[in-house]
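Exercise 7. Predict the joint structure of the components listed below.
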Amino acid sequence: MEMNEKAILQFKDLDISFRTNAGVVHAIRGVNIELRRGETVAIVGESGSGKSVTVKAAVGLLDGNATVNSGQILYRYKNDDGSEKVVDLLSMSKRELRRTVNGSHIAMVFQDPMTSLDPTMTIGKQIMEGILLHTDADRAAAHARALELLELVGITDAEKRMKNYPHQLSGGMRQRVVIAIALASDPDILICDEPTTALDVTIQARILELIRDVQSRLGLSVIYITHDLGVVAKVADYVNVMYAGKIIEVGTVNEIFYDPRHPYTWGLLAAMPDLETDDDRLVSIPGSPPNLLHEPVGDAFAPRNALALKIDEKADPPMFKVSDTHYAATWLLHPDAPKVEMPHELQERIERSRKEAERYQ
Amino acid sequence: MSEPLLKVRDLTQHFHVSRTFTVKAVNGVSFDIYPGETYGLVGESGSGKTTIGRSIIRLYDPTSGSVLFQGKEIGGKLDRATEKMLREDMQMIFQDPMSSLNPRKKVGDIIGEGLDIHHRFSSTKERDDAVAEMLNKVGLSQAHAERYPHQFSGGQRQRVGIARALVMNPKLIIADECISALDVSIQAQVVNLMKDIQDATGCAYLFIAHDLSMVKYISDRIGVLHLGHMVETGTTEEIFANPVHPYTKSLLSAVPLPNPEVEKRRKSIPYDRAAEGIDYSVGTEHVVEGTHTVLATDEEFARWTA
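Solution:
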C-alpha cells in the first residue's frame, strides 16, 4: 500500500454514496486528506458538505445505507513489538476495527456530550470501561488511571467526581469527561467532531485550550471537524475546506486565512464578521449548497459563484498548486483564466488581521 | 433622545419547579429600546436572555417588574385595544424555523394569518398581493406561497419566519437566536435581509444571540447578561472598547477570531464569580460614562475602573 512517508493517517480518493428513498446521494466525491504525527488538521464546511461522513468512514461508523465506492483510508501504527504497520481501515470489518483500532489507536469526541455519555453509569465507570477493555490493567490500576485522566482534563475534585452521573455535571465538564474517555487508552489520533458546538463561547475557549494542551503533552495528532472559522484559526495547523463532498482548498492555516484562493473560501471568510467589521452589509454567498441527490455537472460551487467561468459549467476544476502546501480547486487559478481579485472587504480584513498579528509577535 | 419604544424595568421571572425549588431565571433586569435601533442581548446558555424575550412578548407571565411598550403597561390583564396594539406592533422570530412553522399550513397562509386575524385587507386579492410582496421582500418568489414548510431549506424557512413577523409592519421584532441554527453563508444572507428591512421600515430589533461577533455587527446597543442579571450595558462601541465587568471581559476574550497568528497566542480570560466574590444581588448600577453602566458594588466599581 502506497502511503506518504510522514503521514499517520491518509484519506485517498475516498468516494462514498448513500442509498435513500429519494435516490442515491453521492455525499463524498473524491476526498484526499493527510494527517501527520503531532499535527492538527481541520476540516471546515457547511452542514451537508460531508465532513462528518469522511471521518466516520475512518472509524467504521458509517450508516448501513452507505457504500464506499472507491478509495482507501491508510493508517500507520506501531505494533506492540515496535514494528510499523500500514493498514487500510476500509478493508477491515467493523468487528476488526473495534478490536484493533477504535479507542486504542483512533479515538473520537462527538458534538453533544449528553448523548455520547451513558446516563445510567457513573463517569468513573465510563472512563474505566475503556481502560479495562483495551489494556490488561486490573480494576485498581484502571481506577488510578481514570483519576489521572480526570486531572489531566482539568476536573478538580476528581475522586468525588468519579461517583457522579453525567446529568450532575455542566456541559463543559461533560465534554471534559468525554475527552478523558477518548484519551483513556493512549490513542495516536483524536478525531473531534464539532467538539464545542453545543457549548458556550467561554467554555468553548477552555475546551479548545485543553485539547491543545493535551495534544502537545501527549504528542497526539488531531482532526477537527467544524464550521466555525474562529475555532479553526485557534487550533489548526492545516485546513481543508470542504464543499459538496469535495475538498476545494487545502493549505496551512496561515495560507487559508491570509491568502485564500477559492471563491468559496473567500465567501466563508467574508460572511463571518470579526469584531472589527463595520461594513454596511456582510458579503454573503447567494443561494444554498447543492443537493447531492442530483450530481452536479462541472464545479459544484458555480451556481453560487458570481465569478464562475464558462468552463465551470462543463468541467470540475482539478487542484491547482499555489505553494507546496497550498492547493485550490478553482479554474481561476488556471494560467489562462482572467485575473480576479478577492472581494475588497475581505482584502481589508486580511490587511487588518496581518497588522494585528504583527502586534502580537 | 426620543421616547423609548420599549421600557423594561426590574423585570423578574421566576419559575416554580416544585414547592422547594424555584428557578430564578431573570432577576431585576432593566433596559430601554428606542424606535429603529437594534438592541443585542448576549450571555451564555442559562443566562436568561431567551426568557427576557419571551416575558416581554407575554409568553410568560412576569413575576414582578414592568414592561412598557409605546408608553403602555403590557403586563397582567390587558384591555382589548392594548392587546390589539401589542399583537400588531410586536412580533417574534424564533430560533428553529422548523418547529415554529405549522407544517400543515401553506407558507402563504402562515404569512397571511396575521392579516386575516386583524382584517388588514378589503379583498382576497389585496391579501394575496401583500403576501406576495412580503415573499419578494425576503428573497422568495410568489410561487413559494403554495408550498409547505418542509419543502424549503433551513435558510428559506427562516426567511418565511421573518416574513411572517414583518407582514404586520411591527415596530419591534424580538429575534431570538434567529440565525444560530443556520450555516455561516446563510447567516450573512439573513442578517443582511434584517438590516435592509430595518432601513426600509424603521422597525426596532431585540436581537438575542450568543455569537458575539454577529451581535456586535448588528447591534447599536448591547446588554450582557449573566445568571439572570444584566451585568453591563451600553452602546456597542462602549462595551467592546472598554469592557468593565470581568464577565464581559471573559466573554470578549473567548470569542475565537478568524486570525490564526493572533488566535494561537491569545488565551481566554477565565471568569469565576465565586472565586472573585462577586454577588450580583448586592451590586447596583454604576454609570461608567454616557449610557454605559455596569452592575457592581462601590468597591468593585472602583477596582474595575482603576
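Discussion. Chain B touches chain A through 43 residues (CB under 8 Å).
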